[in-house]
Amino acid sequence: MPNPSDSWFTSKIRTDTFFPIPYQKALSLHCDEAVANNLLLIGDRVVKCDPYQEGEGGFGYSNTPSCETADLRNWRDDVGSGVLVPITLIMEPIQIKTTTTPGSNELLSILLYTFTSKISVRFTDPMQYWVTSCTTDWVDFTCDALDDNDIRIWTFSRDINTSIKITCNEKVVVDFDKEFGDQDEYGTCKSDWFSEQDEDKFWIDPETTVSGYSLKADLTSWRVPDKVTNAKKMNLEKYPLQFKTDSALGSNASVGLIFENGRGDTNQFRLMVEFKDEAKYLFEMCSYNEKELDLAQCYAVNGKQDEIIWTMERFENTVLVFCNGVQIIDYEELAGERDPADECDPWSLSYARRLRFESTDDATTDYRFMPKSCDSIPADWTGVTPPPELPVTDGTVLRLSCVSDEEVVAVSRVVTCNPRYPEGFQYQAKPVCIRADGEVTLEPKSPIIKHDLTNSILITCRYFGLKEPDEVKWYKGSETEDNIIAPEKYTTESFDSDTYKQNSVLKLENISVVDSGGYICKWIRTSSNVDDVSETMTIHVRTLQMTQEAKSYSTDGSINLECAYSGKSQGSLKWFHKSDEILTGGKNEFKNNEQKFTLDMKDVSVELNAGKYKCVWSDDWSDNDGDRIEAETEVVVRTGVIVSDLSNDGQPYKYVEGEILELQCQFEGDIEPKAVVWQNGGSDINIDGVTNIIFN
Question: What is this structure's pTM?
Answer without folding.
Answer: 0.57
